[in-house]
Design a protein that fits this description.
single chain, about 400 residues, alpha/beta, Urease, subunit C, domain 1, 2 domains, 9 helices, binds zinc ion
């Protein structure tokens, strides 16, 4: 039994000031007034206790890409490094790739998810920024890996190249490891794919797409309930052409991801989206590339491309935006400062709402009986400690800096 004492606890219904949060057997056993001493107290005076951050869209950190470096253990290594940023659960995220590379990645995600949190963040299943996206809105994704949704009876190979059917077969073979699949609903047979994927328990997300409002609406009617990095890699919201962005903003039951680095989306547009959707309809994501956490100019991989730390984000050699370099603790600070959310609402966007999207509504909230996945922040919202399943897996006093040995070049 451990008691975290003296902080303000950020609960779903509001703040509990000068509180004690009791952890017992991996779960939250009590939240109440912090008077008295128990002999197992950890002083958190002047700080905040928030639910552990959950990132539904992250490609890597500290030089490791969860897809490109999957065979070298990147999924587990990224899970081990994320608690220093307050992350207690995440969806390792791929880009369009070959069926063989996808299978290696999904096997690693499945194994890490089955192992449970071993001193790091929980792996909550994969997010596939899949092969089934629009070439016109692919961003940094490799054009040669894009495919159309499979036709009935389609072969796994055509002219020596893999087909959409081969990708779907790989997803089927690793069904339990795949949580979210991003696709462009305007592609031929995309609505059939939405129906098939949702029927097998996957969450379909709309993104990397030039879909019209009607095309997006049809996909939502077919079961799509998530949107991949709202506003980025889709046509802009326009009053006579609402498009995909307008469709997902207007639809109840669709959770919109927003890259919360203050660069991918202007803070004012973040406020617009949060007002439209409510705090239960927006998940703050990093969309962090493997170069996140590295110094300016450092390089790493995204799929088989080389990316580098640019002035504001991760970039390909030609300057194409290739994800962010932000982290979830910085996203939380941005929501409270630049976007102007309350601490309670910021915790919803960084923990509660993404936990639900990840299929784990038991996570992402500080309440008695729920798993003790939480972050102790200082008065300036910097991470002091991160706890997963009642175990302290990161303590800034144990060394807040990344040692060179931990960073792959
Ligand atoms: Zn991404």
């Amino acid at each position: 039994m451990v008691r975290l004492r003296g902080a303000t606890v950020v609960c779903p219904e509001g703040l509990v000031t000068d509180a004690a949060l009791v952890i017992d057997d991996g779960r939250i056993a009590g939240i109440g007034p912090g008077t008295g001493a128990s002999g197992h107290d950890i002083a958190c005076d002047g700080g905040w206790i928030v639910p552990g951050f959950i990132d539904t869209h992250i490609h890597g950190v500290h030089g490791m890409d969860v897809l490109a470096d999957a065979a070298a253990g990147a999924v587990a290594a990224v899970a081990a490094r994320l608690p220093r940023y307050g992350v207690t659960g995440f969806l390792p995220t791929s880009v369009a790739c070959s069926p063989d590379d996808l299978a290696i990645f999904l096997a690693a995600v499945g194994a890490a998810a089955a192992d449970g949190p071993a001193g790091g963040a929980r792996v909550l299943g994969a997010h596939l920024e899949s092969n089934f996206i629009s070439a016109g809105f692919k961003g940094a994704q490799p054009a040669r890996c894009l495919r159309l949704p499979p036709a009935p009876g389609e072969a796994l190979e055509r002219d020596g190249a893999f087909t959409g059917a081969a990708i779907l077969a790989t997803i089927d073979a690793h069904r339990g490891a795949v949580r979210i699949v991003t696709l462009a609903p305007e592609l031929p047979r995309a609505l059939d794919l939405v129906t098939r994927l949702t029927g097998r328990g996957h969450r379909v997300s709309l993104g990397h797409s030039g879909a019209t409002y009607d095309e997006a609406q049809a996909a939502i009617a077919a079961g799509a309930c998530h949107a991949t990095h709202l506003f980025n890699r889709m046509p802009p919201l326009a009053h006579r052409a609402p498009g995909l962005a307008g469709a997902v903003l207007a639809a109840d039951g669709v959770t919109c991801e927003i890259v919360a680095d203050g660069y991918h989306v202007h803070p004012a547009m973040m406020r617009v989206a949060i007002r439209a959707k409510g705090r239960g309809g927006v998940a703050a994501i990093t969309d962090a590339a493997a170069v996140a956490g590295l110094p300016p100019g450092a390089t790493a991989r995204l799929g088989d491309a080389t990316i580098r730390v640019g002035a504001h984000c991760a970039e390909l050699a030609d300057g194409t935006i290739a994800g962010s370099i932000t982290t979830m603790d910085a996203a939380f600070r941005l929501l409270v400062t630049a976007v102007g959310l309350s601490v309670v609402d910021a915790a919803h966007l960084t923990a509660t709402t993404p936990a639900a999207a990840a299929g784990r509504p038991d996570l992402g909230r500080l309440a008695v009986g729920h798993p003790a996945d939480l972050v102790v922040l200082d008065a300036g919202f910097r991470v002091r400690q991160t706890w997963v399943a009642g175990r302290c897996v990161w303590n800034s006093e144990g060394g807040g800096a990344v040692s060179p040995a931990e960073v792959r070049s």
